[in-house]
Amino acid sequence: MRALAFVLVARLLGKKVPAVHERTYRDYSLTPEVMRLSDIARRRRGRKMISSAQGTTYDLEKMFSKINRRYFDSSLEKPTITWSQRKTRSILGHHDRVYGTITISKSLDSPQVPEWFVEFILYHEMLHIKHAARMINGRRYYHTAAFRLDERRFAKFEDAQRWLEQVARQRRVPRARAA
Question: How confident is the model at residue 62 (pLDDT cuts 50, 70, 90)?
Fold first, then answer.
């Protein structure tokens, strides 16, 4: 409790938190029980905007089934899959473990975007279901070595990397990415 008070007051006043209190607070906040309760609170207070998996060009549900069969031996449980509410510039996909959703950017639902590229972004997000985040020194790592190794199994991985670079240049963002 004391560490929490130090952290809150220091942050409120814009001061540096003493390292001992920062460490105590961080260690406590990263315990499995606190993280579980945090997820519960997030689910209760928030809401996830869900539109549809059926886009004007691509059907994400059909893509999920195809990718699940090909790369995961149909072992992944299907989350809620949706197109984003708006077109996004840099984040092209997102997996939300708490809500059990995969959201793909509406900017990819276009005949100008190759189907294999949308499949790659969806595949990347599906890998987040297979590979849970790892906690190392108080930091969450989502894209572990095992994750990256599996990501390279995608049939058009190299093409997808080139397409990502092209999208980033066109949109003038550091690097378009799946989250």
Answer: very high
Q: What is the mean pLDDT of residues 76-93?
A: 91
**Yes or no: domain 60-178 corresponds to CATH 1.10.340.30:** no
> How much is the pLDDT for 117?
97
List CB contacts of 176: < 8 A, sequence separation 6 or more.
89, 90, 91, 92, 164, 167, 168
In the predicted model, what is the mean pLDDT of residues 64-84? 97
Cα–Cα distance measured from residue 128 to residue 143, given in angstroms and rounded to the nearest whole number: 8
> How many angstroms separate the CA atoms of 25 and 6, rounded?
9
Residue 96: half-sphere exposure toward Cβ, Cα within 13 Å? 19
Distance CA 124, CA 143 (A): 10
Domain boundaries, the chain: 2-45, 60-178
Those residues whose C-beta lies under 8 Å from the C-beta of residue 109, and which sit 6 or more positions away, are 55, 56, 57, 58, 83, 118
